[in-house]
Amino acid sequence: MTQVTLDTLVEAAISGDRVVSFPTDTVPALAVRPQQAELIFQLKQRTPDKPLILMGANAESLWPFVEGTVEELEVWSQMARQYWPGALTLVLPASEKVPRAMNPSDPTTIGLRVPNADIARSILQRTGPLATTSANLSGMPPLLTVAEINAQFPLVLTLDPGELQVMPVADSVPSTVIKWNGNGTWKVLRQGAVKLKFQ
């Protein structure tokens, strides 16, 4: 049985030798320290051209992982203030702090998100930002329950449901993903829970 207490899950995530899973405001996440991102790629049988998302407890914890001008940072912060915490992933220029394993095919960018789920932010507050993705084998539908995750990934640590006062309602719709074009505009890479349209 891989269902563990909150403290055990946090300790495992910090140690970096185990992939953990926790609920978010969209689909449940698989998560690991950014430096060990390759563990998720192996687990999901995921190809290197599908980068992971860096999830944090708040915007301030994520900004060190991006690099831009003062003006760009202000635009990004404005978008973050409007939609975070929430189901919007911002793909921005990566700083040197981002391990190449997060995005093997294009290490120059990184996707960032702050989830609108108290339990997820509580974990991330203690672990620091984690490399995350949906809990499923690559190309398969997201797993939505702890039982499904335990069955598919028996070595992944999941939260004992008894640890949660309120289990977040998993929305099977993933986050919307938008990418900064570098010329003051955004491009929608994936329409998800947040509906956005740019000229």
Short description:
The chain is an alpha/beta fold and 199 residues long. It is 26% helix and 21% strand.
Structure description:
With 199 residues, the chain is an alpha/beta fold. The protein has one domain (3-190): Alpha-Beta Complex (DHBP synthase), CATH 3.90.870. It has helices at 6-15, 38-44, 59-62, 70-83, 118-127, 146-152; strands spanning 3-4, 20-22, 29-32, 53-55, 88-93, 109-113, 130-134, 157-159, 176-180, 186-190. Strands 1-8-2-3-7-4-6-5-9-10 form a 10-stranded mixed sheet, sandwiched between helices. The longest helix is centred in the middle third of the chain and has 14 residues, at 70-83. The protein is globular.
Short descriptors:
199 residues, alpha/beta, DHBP synthase, 26% helix, single chain, 10 strands, globular
**C-alpha geometry:** globular
Radius of gyration: 16 Å
Query: How many domains comprise the coordinates?
Result: 1
Proportion of residues in β-strands: 15-25%
The CATH architecture can be given as Alpha-Beta Complex
Q: Into which percent range does the helicity of residues fall?
A: 25-40%
Strands across the major sheet, in which order? 1-8-2-3-7-4-6-5-9-10
The CATH homologous superfamily corresponds to DHBP synthase
- The residue ranges in which pLDDT falls below 50 over 5 or more consecutive positions are none
String of helices and strands: EHEEHEHHEEHEHEEE
Specify the CATH class. Alpha Beta
Fold blueprint:
Layout: E1 3-4, H1 6-15, E2 20-22, E3 29-32, H2 38-44, E4 53-55, H3 59-62, H4 70-83, E5 88-93, E6 109-113, H5 118-127, E7 130-134, H6 146-152, E8 157-159, E9 176-180, E10 186-190
Parallel strand pairs: 1-8, 2-8, 4-6, 5-9
Antiparallel strand pairs: 2-3, 3-7, 4-7, 5-6, 9-10
Helix pairs in contact: 1-5
